[in-house]
Amino acid sequence: MIVFLAIPIAYSWYIYRLIVRLRRSPASQDSRLNAHGPSSAEELDKVSYKEIDMAKVLSPATHEGYAVIGGSGFLGTYIVRLLIMRGETNIRIVDLNPPTSKYLNHPSVSFVKTDITSVQSVRDALSAPFPNTRTAPTVIFHTAAIIRFWDRMSYCWDATYRVNVTGTQNILTVAKELPSAMVIYTSSAETVTGSPKFLRIDWDRYPVSIRDEDPTPTYPLKQACYPRSKRMAEQLVIRAARTDGLKTGILRPGHTIIGPNDRLLSSTLTMPRLPMWDQPWTSTDICVFDAAAAHLNYEDALRRIPEEVSGEAFLITGRGPAWSVGDVRAAIKHYATRELIFDELPPLLMYVLAHIMEAFLFLRYHFLLPFCFVFGGGRPSLLPRWLGPAIFLQPATLAGQMIDCIVDDSRAQKVLGYRPQWDVAQCIRYSVDEIQSGNVVADHGLKVV
Predict the structure, then answer these.
(1) Closest to 77 in 3D by CA, of 41, 48, 56, 106
(2) What's residue 259's pLDDT?
(3) Which of 106, 184, 205, 400 has its CA 20 to 30 A from that of 71?
(4) Residue 249 gets which letter from DSSP?
């Protein structure tokens, strides 16, 4: 009788502890005790970003040639904007798609359509000289990536590997052929953060704070396709510096890059309804302007102290303490001119549904695979469009969302001269103003494309 009673009691206790674990980790207090906390309406009304002058953290113009790979994308757009701001006259956007931002409509900016999975396409884009200097680009900012943050299964791997790893190898191959070239690669803090193992409940321990000085992590790293691919690409960039003598650098922004058209702020502001289950989790995030400025700081350091910084990786984040996701969305709601509808959902339900979605997509793909080979000669789509944004609800997504993360960028500040200018509240207000004023297209990174 005791055994029969013990089993349901133990099961109930475990489910209760799992519910708790899906809201906090054993190390959450290390982050949440020093987090920003909710902001009052008066505090949010006082927030201003008008006084921020990004020009003061930029070195003087070099008037060399610049190639921004992925320059039409989120981060790449802001790198180009800062290059224009400091007076560069030879800027080439290397991307599969042309830029749409009005800020990039400038005589110093040109565009070359490029597929980075093709080494010849990359060679054509990077080896072509600028008309007024008759020389190829010498500074290459590589921000291009495919961010399939929801994928972790092996059948999805090639879609990410082809762009993030093969594409990086192609860029490095061509860069070695160019005289005096340097490559600054945008990675992610996710390459060194822990991977939550929710079912371990109270025994799932990994550090909340991450630093450059920490040894190579022994705890389980992210197993999702995106961070795995970025880690592999990092190794290629490091090897190019140490083996081939190419000047390279790696930046790991984190925990999330925020700004107009990002995934966090812009989706909250523009989606008709927003499902929420990650409100308590805290992190330090970086404004896209600061992330862009860090790339130019790294370029300057590669000129000044290449022996210290070439082939190195630096974490970078924004100014100020960590914010919880719930407090970020509350601030967005305060600044929004339309009513924002938030649907609060239980994390345990979303955890179960995420695994059901992953299993369904796995079975769907392998069921359709033989039919596609017989009748079409190809493979099934990894993105059934009829599912819409629901496809993002997978375990890898939760592992990236439901984590406390404090990024320590003191080494980047000391060595690279990186100086973050934006705190989270300023970036939120700027992003809302830019989108609501129509200065940027009301878009976000949570769309099936």
Answers:
(1) 106
(2) 97
(3) 400
(4) E
Question: Smallest Cα–Cα separation from 175: which of 133, 125, 232, 250?
Answer: 125
Which residue is listed with tokens 């994390």? 347
Q: Distance (Å, rounded) from C-alpha 109 to C-alpha 83?
A: 10
Identify the DSSP state of 144.
-
Render pLDDT for 190-220 as a digit per residue (tens, 0 to 9): 999 988 999 998 887 778 899 998 876 655 6
Q: How far apart are CA 249 and CA 238, in angstroms?
A: 8
**Residue the block writes with tokens 């700004």:** 259
CA distances (Å), origin 425, targets 20, 54, 265:
29, 17, 11
Backbone torsion region of residue 61, taken as left when φ is above 0, otherwise alpha when ψ lies between -120 and 50, otherwise beta: beta
Q: Are 185 and 142 in contact (CB under 8 A)?
A: yes
Return the structure tokens found at 17.
């502890």
Number of neighbouring beta carbons within 10 Å of residue 344: 10
Amino acid found at 188: S
Give me the pLDDT at residue 49, please. 98
Burial (0-12, 13-18, 19+ Cβ within 10 Å), 24: middle
Query: DSSP H helical segments within 376-409, as ranges?
Result: 395-401
Tally: H helices and E strands in the chain: 16, 15
Among left, alpha and beta (phi > 0; psi -120 to 50; other), residue 311 is: left
User: Beta-carbon neighbour count of residue 126 at 10 Å?
Assistant: 24
In this structure, are residues 84 and 61 in contact, taking their beta carbons and an 8 Å threshold?
A: no
Helix, coil or strand: residue 449: coil
226 is an active site residue: yes
Residues lower than pLDDT 70 in the chain: 1, 3, 216-222, 442-449
Distance CA 173, CA 176 (A): 5
For residue 278, count other CB atoms closer than 10 A to its CB.
21
Distance of CA 170 to the CA centre of its chain: 21
CA–CA gap between residue 303 and residue 270 (Å, rounded): 42
User: Which amino acid is residue 35, in one-letter code?
Assistant: A
Cβ neighbours around 1 below 10 Å, total: 5
Exactly one of 185, 206, 226, 351 is catalytic; name it: 226
Query: Distance between CA 149 and CA 130 in Å, rounded?
Result: 36
The residue assigned the tokens 């017989």 is: 374
CA pair distance 240, 247, nearest whole angstrom: 8
Q: Do 101 and 292 touch, CB atoms closer than 8 A?
A: no
Cα separation, 188 vs 315, in Å, equals 8
